[in-house]
Amino acid sequence: MPKFAKPETQAEKLAKNLYKHKIIKSLGTARSYKTALIKIARWSKDIGINGVQGMSLQDAYKYLDYRSEFAGQKTLDMERQAIQAMFKLNGKLRPKETLTVIKSEKEIIEKSRAYTPAQAHAISEHQTRKYNLSTQIAYAAGLRAHELLTIARVSERKADSRPALDSKWLGREGCIYTVKGKGGLIRDVLLPNALATQLEQRRLAQPITVRDREINYLQRYDIGGGHKWSCSFSKASSRTLFFSNGGHGLRHSYAQERMDELKSLGLSRQVALETVSQELGHFRAEITEVYLK
Question: Name one GO biological process term (predicted).
């Protein structure tokens, strides 16, 4: 495959080869896989992979994890199957091997609703210290469940180069850390000074590798995160409030509160929306709109 080939060119050639080598059995499937592979190739290019076939198994799960936030289950399954076929073609998977099914979070995100500050505080008070701090951090910085496992000092890991407005974190103060988000994007996040102090008190002597939903993370702090934190949060919410919007509801809280805050500081809605999108680690501002409902 030519170096730096366009995503469309890569996808078309791959789809033809999948059919030619009988990895797939119909031209209809080849056309469907081509559409999926174009998206996959564009993502690969965005994160610096030279050619979609250069993706590793870990890259595949990063991609599916990234897509799970705004792709429905049917689309996500199609893209997983396209990657799976590609890996069988290039020998990264054996003929009968499969990729683990990743569940779409789109429906969960669309159904989640924001918690008020009082509700978020009440929930955290009904968790153990380890999970209590995680909930406070997730609320204050708008973090995803797995991002809690990836917090690092900026001296240890730099954020990826992405567009950033001067209005990012306007009106707020604190300490900058980095987290690894959807699609492997490393971004800066701002933690209030008091929470940063508590976090540093739980710093591990040596980082450890933890596995959450088929992905390995290097964890530097003894706090909850990932699926275990999500379960703790939902149980505490149900005990405290008699309902649960899930841990993702805290990202809705962050988005809505920041939008109000930034508009009160004189920013237009569009600039505020783009600012919040950057702070939340969204690849597109349109995704942030879902969090404002």
Answer: DNA integration
